[in-house]
Amino acid sequence: MRGAGALLAGLLGWGLAEAATPRLRELELAVPGLPDELDGLRIVHLSDFHLGVASPGVRAVRRAVAWTAERAPDLVVVTGDLLTRPRGEPLLRELIAQLPRPTFAILGNHDLAISRDPQAARSDLQELEPATLLRDSGVELSLRGKSVWVAGADARLIVRRRLRVDPNTLSRAADFRILLCHYPRVVDVLQPGRFELVLAGHMHDGQIALPYPGGKVRFAHLNARFQRGVYRTPAGVLHVSPGLGTTFVPFRFAARPEATELVLRSAAA
User: Global pTM?
Assistant: First the structure.
């Protein structure tokens, strides 16, 4: 019994430590349709803060925000689940103010308490200054002389398995188009040619996983097709962030939190 107790304590300690220690990663990403002028554009992708509950993920978020500020990228995006409970809003605003501009954010299902997580309580932010909060809306930027359209889908995108808003309608004419959506499966309903890059979160890389040779079992989303990393789909290039916070339990096992700096590369570069 003492041995089992020591093993359990060790596993819990590992899970807490992993949840607090984000991977800070630079990733070169070839994107078809990227104008040559935007080759080397740097986007830091953050996701799933889940602030407002006791979790070592708060430490991971703080470290990721500080790292992002040091990197000074061209663009910062945060793809939802900013808050699990409204009491995390003061800290969220403190951290958002530290991020380089421009920063764009969207809401996730936890922000609206569309979740089985018993800790989730509705926050439903309407703005997040100095970041731009996108809710079925978009903003056109001028970067390196090219127009870049950044659109964000609301977390209510899918209600009772039906589309509430067609994400294809969020596209606009621009030299390069980015869609932010909390749910990776948005690519299943996107028409080719609407967006070149889709950035999502939600999955936590499973949060609690069991590795095996050549892969791992992700217990949070056993059958999901898009778990973490880069996917090349007919709808465009998809990057799914492992996120930074935790849900249900304050642990991560074999699913380390991550902040990712995407360095975009054109096919001609």
Answer: 0.94
